[in-house]
Amino acid sequence: MKKILLLAAVAVMGMSVSAQEFRFGPKVGFAMSTMKIDENQDDLGARKMSPKYTFYVGGMAEYKINDNFGFQAEVLYSPLGAKEKIDGIDAGVVYVGEQTKVNLGTLLVPISAKYFITEGFSVAAGANFGVILTAKQKTVIGSDFISIDVEDEDGSGEVDIKKDIKKLNIAPFVGVEYMLENGLFFDARYSLGVSNLSNDNSGGKVTNSFAQIGVGFKFGGN
């Protein structure tokens, strides 16, 4: 009887191990980032900056518990942010306007739970934990005849605004992924920024949301 129970336990353990699967690999892709500025936190006076089109690059690790469920963690870098154009006034001779670009160099750590509809197709939900490493803003004042960079002290044309931006950007996300038999995969996701990135004590709110489309390759597995 003890032998039968032992054999049964070994068989169950073997089934469990065979169902588990670990994969890892690189991924790169395209990102569309936007920022929302709400000076009163009432959504009535909020304005949404225009999208910034950028990239991301990094790696991922996936642990599949069984045929249907798994977890995934990633480490990515992406220069997120947004841009904004403010129309100026017609002074009779020139038309003066202003363009601003915000660049947030962000280290992203997405963690998600995955549900595998088929072996190659899955959906995911989780949260992006973004650490903002650099924060810079470039403003250009333009006209029909000339444009002027609003420069900082080193003359680069960018102003360091890191002191005005909080370091952590938490963004819940949902996404989908399709993987081929050889390990090549394609994914897409949308991350909704919920963290207030503004260090301004006047009560304003700044959030950063972004969409991503990427490709990667998974090593490992059974």
TrEMBL record:
* Gene3D superfamilies associated with the record: 2.40.160.20
* Keyword vocabulary terms for this entry: Signal
Q: InterPro entries recorded for this chain?
A: Beta-barrel_OMP_2 (IPR025665), OMP/PagP_B-barrel (IPR011250)
Q: Describe the location of the Outer membrane protein beta-barrel domain by residue ranges.
A: 19-198
The answer, when asked if Signal is one of the entry's keywords, is yes
Domain of life, per lineage: Bacteria
Q: What are the boundaries of the signal sequence?
A: 1-19
Under which name does UniProt file this protein? Outer membrane protein beta-barrel domain-containing protein
This protein's species is: Chryseobacterium ginsengisoli
Taxonomic placement: Bacteria, Pseudomonadati, Bacteroidota, Flavobacteriia, Flavobacteriales
